Amino acid sequence: MRSRRWDGKSGCAVEVTLSVIGGVWKPIILFHLMTGKRRFMELTRRVPNATQSMLTSQLRELEADGVVIRHVYPEVPPKVEYELSEFGRTLVPVLLAMREWGETYRGHGSTEGDCQS
């Protein structure tokens, strides 16, 4: 799966990774999708500092990159769920490593302010 923003002409592998998951909110969104499907409003509650428009924008980019799948159900009111694609699930070890590094950096095992997936 190629990133919609990556031309493959230059740069290192870390650049490729960051072209897909870089930004303030994308890793957090992906972390919350690791355990399964989430509705948009559930994601807004789990990522309260991101505006709804920013969350929408980030989800659209992740969907365009093939990392997230958007499911729309023909219901009233509309029901939309997001989940990691098979390609997106390859990022789980990366996200867990980021969490582990953050726990170490934050204060050697403190769970204060911990992300709950």
UniProtKB/TrEMBL annotation:
PROSITE patterns: HTH_HXLR. Signal peptide: none annotated. SUPFAM superfamilies: Winged helix' DNA-binding domain. Pfam families: HxlR (PF01638). Gene3D superfamilies: Winged helix-like DNA-binding domain superfamily/Winged helix DNA-binding domain. It comes from the Bacteria. One of its GO terms (molecular function) is DNA binding. Residues 12-110 form the HTH hxlR-type domain. InterPro entries: HTH_HxlR, WH-like_DNA-bd_sf, WH_DNA-bd_sf. Keywords: DNA-binding, Transcription, Transcription regulation. This is Transcriptional regulator. It comes from Stenotrophomonas maltophilia (Pseudomonas maltophilia).
